[in-house]
Amino acid sequence: MLRWVAIGLTALAMGAAPAGASGAPRDVASTHAYLVAAHTALHAVVSKWASVEAGIRQLDVRFHSECPDVGAGSPQSEEEQKLSYEVAGALWATGYHTEASVVRAFVKAVSPLQWSNPAITRSARKFTRGLQDMTALTVPNLCADVRSWIAGGFKAVPADTQLYDRRVEAIEVIEVPRRLLLPFLPPADRGLLAQTLHLATQFEELEFKRGQVDWNTALETLGLNQ
Q1: How many Cβ atoms from other residues are within 10 Å of residue 109's Cβ?
Q2: How confident is the model over 79-113, as pLDDT tens digits?
Q3: Is residue 13 part of a domain?
Q4: What share of the chain is helix, strand, coil (3-state, %, to 5)?
Q5: Is 225 inside a domain boundary?
Q6: Quick one: which of 105, 75, 80, 91 has its CA closest to 9?
Q7: Is the pLDDT confidence value at 25 over 60?
Q8: What is the Cα Rg of the chain in Å?
Q9: Which H or E run contains 87?
């Protein structure tokens, strides 16, 4: 459920490497640089996952301190789902802030890359913009937003919540299409690709095991329903 920085960094984590790379030297070089950047980012995120979890725990401690069970007894409704999504946004913002240096390094490495197919270059630019937008996300004032919702008789969440949710939903972190990059992967990079696949699997396991737990914990702390 959660989209940490590595979510979109596995664009080259395909099931198998091609027999050989084709295309202009620039295409092969750019694809190699992209794979290196993806591997570096995934390795950094996986190896420092404890830092992400520490940031999430800090956020939960803050909720415990400022507004524990603030939404206790609130009705489960479509409006409350907007607050639940805002909680998810707060977790995403926290995770991306923790790994901001990883994002910056990836963006710096990928932004100058170009391919003969302009669709690949545009996709890479869109990907890096999405990552930058995620690091720019702020952690919303959930305590105030839940209190405002309660004060209004649970009728409608505050405008701040709706604006925040729309901002999060508008961010697109979309990897470069694998089918476009695969032909340009040089045979010498098969080992690096295998390592990236392994790191991607590790990340997916961490994200799956911890993502939902972190979200549920935050909702429970705030006294909100799923």
Answers
A1: 17
A2: 999 999 999 999 999 999 999 999 999 999 999 99
A3: no
A4: 70, 0, 30
A5: no
A6: 105
A7: yes
A8: 20
A9: helix 78-98
Please give the tally of structural domains in the chain.
1
Q: Is 6 inside a domain boundary? A: no
- Cβ neighbour number for residue 194 with a 10 Å cutoff: 12
Tokens of 87: 């909680």
Are 32 and 125 in contact, with CB atoms under 8 Å apart?
no
Split at pLDDT 50, 70, 90, the class of 179 is confident
Residue 99 DSSP code: T
Range of the domain at 89: 23-220
Residue-wise over 61-87: b if at least 16 C-beta within 10 A, else e?
Answer: ebbeeebeebbeebeeeebbebbbbbb
pTM above 0.70, yes or no: yes
CB 39 within 8 A of CB 96: no
Residues 6+ positions from 15 with CB-CB distance below 8 Å: none
Place of tokens 């930058």: 132
Distance CA 118, CA 59 (A): 41
Q: Please give the helix or strand (H or E) that residue 33 lies within, else none.
A: helix 25-47
Burial class (CB in 10 A: 0-12, 13-18, 19+), 35: buried
Instruction: Evaluate whether residue 11 is within a structural domain.
Output: no
CB atoms under 10 Å from CB of 107, counted, come to 17
Cα separation, 210 vs 203, in Å, equals 10
